[in-house]
């Protein structure tokens, strides 16, 4: 049983799985069935999965997070569970963000909490969602309406496993990587600026910084009561609304939300014009990404649609105010409450909305 | 949003509701509809409930704790919720144990936790379940399979409200009262021994001791990781099995489990014969209760049935061992791992089982 005495998970970052750190005989593995189809010269997820005698496969993806189907899913899962379910048992969750959300929630409410180990299989989960204890399910189409804080005791970040995922999943992690490089205390975006390697190599290179920067924030404010943890939300407020509307991948949406937040910071005079241009140049040249509204295929949503999605944000207060994360310079984010109507006006000014 | 920094709820013990401690305009009240039918000269639950503009009624009882129906129930509840659901909101839960379990779980998983206030309406909930943050739902007939630790920020213990409940509910609290008097650090069972008032008056008189003794234990071991909190389980291991089998009220089951634990402690030589007899005399004379197996109507369950129920106990480990709470003397419980088979043998010896 995980106590909440610390949100600091033990993070094991390795090229390959260490032999001695997982009790495969006794742990229960919850894994994404999609992983069975992956295979590289270096690593076979299938073989790894089959090394656990007690294992339960589910299909990863947003539909796994439906709370309506949750009790049925959970009963099916418990039927395959080695009996009896005890609080001393460990649930190992192997998969991307949706598996982590689902498995983390399951671990948190089963017998008031069983021990949890996260093994993220996507770069995005490895750098972000597997750390910090947040999990979430969706209720009636509202994302992340249900959830708990429940940190993993251990998180395994294994390069061989991450490299076995399709390249596009790696590219979907750029948004969170850039975000953390901009707001994290190690300020590693400055290193990205001078980095000579191709962008695909950045991710493993800076993963450790992402993770350390994230723990540095969440340990100061584990339950998001002190507003400190909210700096991690840079790019997320507007990004989430775009994500819900367009059903874009999370990482891509965060990157677009980051463009929005950077431009708003520049426009308000918080971020200098020079640094703003430098940051956008790096993102465009090294990551080949630009604000989506500049692209031909972008179809502007209505203000009304986006406002409704913003109002459903769990961080929105009763008066339609939300703490928005602006950037002063690299490593110096700050929070300021903004009205949803002002956010919409700004998004119109930036050409995101009709 | 309740952080877990402390499991010590602010406990407000009064004869009547204080005027200034509840923000009825802004809190959301979740209440047991059965309370609408109660009324005494001193207090009208109906009037109190109607003072909350935002209120949601549900029928208390074990069926409320069905996890299968939970998402449907929750969606219905959220439809009546003042929009939008925000983490800064407070859910006030008014009712007995099942309401507290249900409402506490709802508060804990909604938006990763909204502020929770408990107003127990039964003596049993007021002395026990409203404190300490445990909540639970039932999955596929297994009691309390699902749940979280989520302490209330405030607990209101109001005599007028508690007295408005039927007398039999008060009598159902005797089991927990006796248990806490025997294991709690204030050792108030010694005071019960010399108490001259009728048993019905004991409950309010000793309620404060029950609550203080409970916090003294749980604050040392909030998440039950250190085995300290398990002393509160005195009478519960065997009591829960009887409760599941006979569907007796919880308090009565705990009292029967207490008889079992006392006799086992005596038989092992932990508890002196003299003190054992004294305790049983007090329970029989002041509370008019005796071990159920001595009564004509008692129908012995089979060992197999009870063993199966014991194996489903979430505190049972993989090897069929459980920490059992024995008593050395008043205020001195101790834990010892026992095998489920030894427990069954002892229950047979005591004439509880076929």
Can you characterise this structure?
The structure is a homodimer of 354-residue chains. In chain A, 41% of the residues lie in helices and 16% in strands. Chain A has helices at 45-50, 70-79, 97-109, 123-129, 159-163, 167-171, 174-183, 189-194, 199-218, 236-246, 250-268, 273-286, 303-311, 340-349; strands at 10-14, 28-32, 55-58, 90-95, 115-120, 137-139, 142-146, 154-158, 321-329, 332-339. In chain A, the strands form three sheets. A six-stranded parallel sheet of chain A has the order 1-8-5-4-2-3. In chain A, a hairpin with a 2-residue loop joins strand 6 and strand 7. In chain A, helix 13 packs antiparallel against helix 14. The N and C termini of chain A lie far apart (50 Å). Chains A and B meet through helix 2 and helix 3 of A and helix 2 and helix 3 of B.
**Average pLDDT figure of chain A:** 92
Q: How many distinct domains of chain A?
A: 2
Output the CATH homologous superfamily of the largest domain in chain A. Dehydroquinate synthase-like - alpha domain
Could you tell me which chain pair has the largest interface and how many residues each side has?
A-B, 44 and 43 residues
Number of strands of chain A: 10
Radius of gyration of chain A: 20 Å
Report the CATH C-level class of the largest domain in chain A: Mainly Alpha
> Which spans of chain A have pLDDT < 50 for at least 5 consecutive residues?
none
Percent strand of chain A equals 15-25%
Write the CATH fold name of the largest domain in chain A.
Dehydroquinate synthase-like, alpha domain
Helicity level of chain A, as a percent range?
40-55%
The order of strands across the largest sheet of chain A is 1-8-5-4-2-3
**Oligomeric state, counting identical vs distinct chains:** homodimer
Total helical segments of chain A: 14
Distance between the termini of chain A: 50 Å
